[in-house]
Amino acid sequence: MWEEKENAGLMQSEATRRIRKRRRRKTAIQTVWLLSIAVMLGGLVYGNLSGSHLPRTTCIIGILGLVLLVTYFIWNVRTLRELSVSKAEAEQELERSSTLIRCVTELSSNQDVDAAINRLLEIIDIYFKGDRTYIFEIDEERQIVHNSYEYAAEGVSKEIDNLDEVPIQIIASWIEKFHKQGSFYISNLDQEKDREDERAYECLKAQNIDSLIAVPLIKEKEIIGFLGVDNPREHYRDFPFLSSVQFFIMNRLDTKMQQEELQFLSYRDALTNLYNRNRYISVLESYQQREGEGIPRIGVAYMDLNGLKKINDEQGHEAGDSFIRRAAQQIVAVFPEHTYRIGGDEFVVIYPDVEERQFAYLITQLQRNAKEHQVSLSYGIVWEETCMNLEVLLKQADHKMYEDKKRYYSNEQYDRRHRSGKSDKA
After folding, report:
1. Distance between CA 302 and CA 333 in Å, rounded?
2. How far apart are CA 42 and CA 26, in angstroms?
3. What pTM was estimated for this model as a whole?
4. What is the mean pLDDT of the chain?
5. Which alpha helices (DSSP H) does 110-236 contain, by range?
């Protein structure tokens, strides 16, 4: 990120250097021109004062001096016009470089990627004097695009919640433009109506969009999304600026993706792919921070595998691992997003916002599935209308699970003695 900031600074320095070089070149040309005119006029005056009898030569020098003066005057007018244009270009170039530095500074100084990108979109929107600036990401597998980030100017409504999952076919013409020409600018949406998907046109008009500028987000030569500005009023053809910004955005999105992958790995159990103890503790801490609010309609299940030690001792740890995976499959089939493996043979389900009847039905379904797949579990089940302390609720479930486990081993010992008695009689 520091390298990107340095590059943006170099762009600003380069712009300043070019302006100064242009000014020095024009000053040098003006100096040579004025010296030439001065020499010719000096020759003309000298000839007159010395009483020279070379009227033709004097006349020629005078005409050449006059032509040079007129030409110099015309050149000066043209130069002034060029300088005004050059000044405007230079100011725009300096503004672009300064804005890029602000963008890079924001991305590099803010550790919260989402907050940094949202702030970046605000900077871009101010630069273009637009209504909205946003990022859409493409999900090729699901064939949708979703609005992942958005900044709306004051008085402009946000649309991010309305554009969460848009069929990719709606922007097929945009993707085609991205492939053919890269960035594009629609100056008048009504004039583009026949070229746009009807659904895209209606969607844009509903948001009061008359014009827009868009640049693709590219990763490994693949278009993975786009950055857009609605109704830009300034710099709307400044594609180099947007291209530079998209590079910085892609860099930050890659960082975010790597962080999420690392977090995913740190929160997943390697053997079962369930949430692990790290994630379990993180969830407990998040609920503790909401102390006093209460958790509505929450169900908790504490489960412990029966017979794992026996399998490990008699069949080996590979068989034991297979048994754990089989148990995890039965649990996650019923509770796919609420299951944690917190120990070797211990599992916990924390299911908020669920009705008691529905939770009881899911537990029954789990018990039926486990029995069919020859997985023996001890259960501790608790449900509360409003839970003020999750740790207390988990301890209640844990206590019930150990009571159930005692019954299991008591029954198993009875069965073993019963079978042994039958063998002695035989």
Report:
1. 16
2. 24
3. 0.58
4. 82
5. 113-128, 172-181, 198-206
